[in-house]
Automatic annotation (TrEMBL):
InterPro entries: NAD(P)-bd_dom_sf, SDR_fam. Signal peptide: none annotated. Gene3D superfamilies: NAD(P)-binding Rossmann-like Domain (3.40.50.720). SUPFAM superfamilies: NAD(P)-binding Rossmann-fold domains. This is Beta-ketoacyl-ACP reductase. Keywords: Oxidoreductase. Belongs to the short-chain dehydrogenases/reductases (SDR) family.
Length: 253
């Protein structure tokens, strides 16, 4: 049994990010044609494109602001023209900002998280789900976070955005399920990626005390969960919030 996405077209927003780039590579390695979204890091997008093409895969790069509906619609037009209709959406992009306490956090940071977590998902759904409905097939995957369950100090804007996103995904799963479209979330823990690999990563003992597997996850493990949910192996899973955290957070029943 293997994950085979041959013939599928995937969009990964934030495709040049630390986790996004590994999702892009993994989906391409599974046979999908991939649209690599970026906001400003065109150099990394081009590097990923060349890497996938050198490995015999098919990809394109698309630039856009995922907080603007018009920008997402422009991306859709480009993908439709160059690859075809999207089968798999991975909403991975998020606006970065400096975390601080609620009393000191700027209101614009709450707005940025709402726009990049909630409204990105709404705009992507409006743009790409109608074609999935027509085909009666599709995968809509959002990247959430363990922080949504932890609610630690200084996380308020991020948690608020991601918890709002969670509500959208749960409702969307019920609204489009009859079309055999699955809607799921992957929630990474504190993950080791390219920027800190080999830099004594995973040595934070305070964090590891709460992780049953006693290690930090790696970027490939997040991408593996995404690829699974994108595949036919996960055809009867929808509305799920799946932590990839080594057990650091455990949703209750």
């Amino acid at each position: 049994m293997k994950i085979d996405l041959t013939g599928k077209i995937a969009l990964v927003t934030g495709g040049t990010g630390e986790l996004g780039r590994v999702m892009v590579r993994t989906l391409a390695n599974c046979g999908a044609k991939v649209a690599i979204h970026y906001l400003s890091n065109r150099t990394k997008a081009e590097e990923l494109l060349e890497e996938i093409q050198d490995d015999g895969g098919t990809a394109i790069i698309v630039q856009g602001d995922i907080t603007k509906e018009a920008s997402i619609l422009n991306m859709k037009q480009q993908i439709d023209a160059e690859l075809g209709e999207v089968d798999i959406v991975v909403a991975n992009a998020v606006v970065q900002y400096t975390w601080t306490s609620i009393l000191e956090q700027s209101p614009k940071d709450y707005q940025s998280q709402f726009d990049s977590c909630v409204m990105q998902s709404v705009y992507l759904a409006k743009a790409f789900i109608p074609a999935m409905q027509a085909k009666r097939s599709g995968r809509f995957i959002g990247i959430n976070t363990e922080c949504s369950m932890q609610n630690f100090p200084n996380q308020s804007a991020y948690v608020a955005g991601k918890r709002g996103m969670d509500g959208v995904y749960r409702v969307l799963a019920k609204e489009v399920g009859e079309f055999q479209i699955t809607v799921n979330q992957v929630a990474p823990g504190w993950t080791i990626s390219e920027k800190d690999r080999g830099d004594d990563a995973g040595s934070d003992e305070a964090y590891l005390q709460g992780v049953p597997l006693k290690r930090r996850g790696v970027d490939q493990e997040i991408a593996n969960a995404v690829a699974f949910l994108a595949s036919d192996l996960a055809s009867f899973i929808t509305g799920a919030f799946i932590p990839v955290t080594g057990g650091n957070v455990m949703p209750a029943i």
